[in-house]
């Protein structure tokens, strides 16, 4: 039987929500092994005073298997 754990990771990107999700997984994989899935819990954008989107932000839930 596998035991799974979920952590919440926030990330952003100047390019897209997809790039922000990739950044979250890339950063998490530096300290977490056996990542199984990522769920995008929330999406938002930062907007400057001229109404231009400056950052795409995601809140992710990353699930990984722990060694038992």
Overall average pLDDT: 96
The string of secondary-structure elements, in order, is EHEE
- What's the count of strands? 3
Show unreliable segments. none
Using the alpha-carbon principal axes, give the shape: elongated
CATH class: Alpha Beta
Percent of residues in helices: 10-25%
Give a quick account of the main beta sheet: strands, pairing sense, barrel closure: 3 strands, antiparallel
The CA-CA distance between the termini, in Å, is 9 Å
Which CATH-level-2 architecture? 2-Layer Sandwich
- Helix/strand/pairing category: alpha+beta
CATH topology category name:
Dodecin subunit-like
The count of helical stretches stands at 1
What is the gyration radius calculated from CA atoms?
A: 14 Å
Q: What's the number of structural domains?
A: 1
The CATH homologous superfamily: Flavin-binding protein dodecin
Strand content: over 45%
User: How is the largest sheet built, in terms of strand order?
Assistant: 1-3-2
Task: Summarize it.
By secondary structure, the chain is an alpha+beta fold. It has one helix at residues 17-28; strands at residues 3-13, 35-47, 53-66. 18% of the residues lie in helices and 56% in strands.
Tags for this entry?
68 residues, Dodecin subunit-like, three-stranded antiparallel β-sheet
Could you characterize what this model shows?
Strand 2 and strand 3 (53-66) form a beta hairpin. The termini are close together. The chain has a 3-stranded antiparallel beta sheet with strand order 1-3-2. It contains 1 helix and 3 strands; from the N terminus they run βαββ. By secondary structure, it is an alpha+beta fold. The mean pLDDT is 96. The chain has a single domain (3-66), classed as Flavin-binding protein dodecin (Dodecin subunit-like, 2-Layer Sandwich).
């Amino acid at each position: 039987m596998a035991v799974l754990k979920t952590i919440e990771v926030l990330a952003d990107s100047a390019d897209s929500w997809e790039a922000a999700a990739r950044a979250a997984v890339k950063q998490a994989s530096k300290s977490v092994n056996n990542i199984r899935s990522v769920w995008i819990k929330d999406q938002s954008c930062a907007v400057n005073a001229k109404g231009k989107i400056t950052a795409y932000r995601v809140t992710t839930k990353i699930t990984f298997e722990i060694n038992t």
